[in-house]
Amino acid sequence: xxxxxxxxxxxxxxxxxxxxxxxxxxxxxxxxxxxxxxxxxxxxxxxxxxxxxxxxxxxxxxxxxxxxxxxxxxxxxxxxxxxxxxxxxxxxxxxxxxxxxxxxxxxxxxxxxxxxxxxxxxxxxxxx
Length: 128
What we know:
Layout: H1 6-16, E1 24-29, E2 34-39, E3 46-48, E4 56-63, E5 73-81, E6 91-94, E7 96-99, E8 102-104, E9 108-110, E10 116-123
Antiparallel strand pairs: 1-2, 1-5, 3-4, 4-10, 5-6, 5-9, 7-8, 7-10
């Protein structure tokens, strides 16, 4: 058996965040339903942080007035997918963020069309 070295893990993070990698993020509500799926590279609401850092963060700006957000909704988790039609998540975990200036530790509630905020989804890989 052999292991990845540090450069291998950096390369994996760069692949995950690339346009050839895991290109869509699904936002999951508190009932376990997919609220929306966002194309990370073609939707201005989403952006990756520097892939050379570990962990790497995906930042998503949301508004209750977004056409794909049905407020009120509580978003708890995110899933990374390799396409818009993928049914198997490559990575999943909790969201954290800020809605209308209030830090949300786990679940993020968008209560009305006027709510706006930013959620962060963190992807961490071993470094060696």
